[in-house]
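Good day; I would like, with your permission, to put a structural problem before you. The record follows directly beneath this note:
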Amino acid sequence: MRPGQAVRLAAALVYPRRCPFCDKVLGWLPDCPDCATELARLRRAVPRLPATEHILRDLTGAAAVWRYDGCVRQAILRFKDGGRACYGEILGAEMARAAFGCNYDIKHGIITFNGVLPLTRFDIVVPVPPSDRGRGYEPPALLAQPICRALNVPLEKRALRKTRPTHTQKGLSAAQRLQNLRGAFCVENAERIEGRRVLLVDDVITTGATVSSCAAALMKAGALEVFAVAAAHTEL
């Protein structure tokens, strides 16, 4: 057993797995039977997001697993609030499976990917930086960890940094959101980005303004291309 697996097994024994979507204890159950119907309704048949429905500037594309509604919305709100960091493991694994075909098994509460790498390849995985790093809790980085294991690609957790405070995005139009975030992100250690194909990870894609602004900074630093993936998206 790898060291990382041993740690995850110990954590699973002390803190039994909970369903991200209803918060019930799952234990060794791989899936929650109570949430299956609603998750099937919210899951996107095609993960890739149409460029006509979101702002996808400086991106080669974007994908999301579910629509941001119902039990998915509740799961992500609990996850982002910091109460359920463990949700990041299953949400990230589902992102890897839906967007890139990385199948996994759950045994004794541990997620193990089957080792078959997808044809789509990236050089690095970069999470969208949180608004406040002082909290010490970074949901996109937690989502990115299982994706990195699935794709066998390194995580550049500190590649992006927010350069200035921004107004809340709530209630703003797509154009206003993009303007609010213009120039709000920069790349640290550009030499680690230059010439790389980047997978950008976020929890929710709303209008696409955040991932587009992050992609602009990555492309400015010399990235070859940037593709974004999120757990959910909103319908405009």
Notes: The mean pLDDT is 87. The two ends are 45 Å apart (CA to CA). Helices lie at 3-14, 36-42, 70-81, 87-100, 139-151, 174-181, 209-220. The longest strand covers residues 197-205.
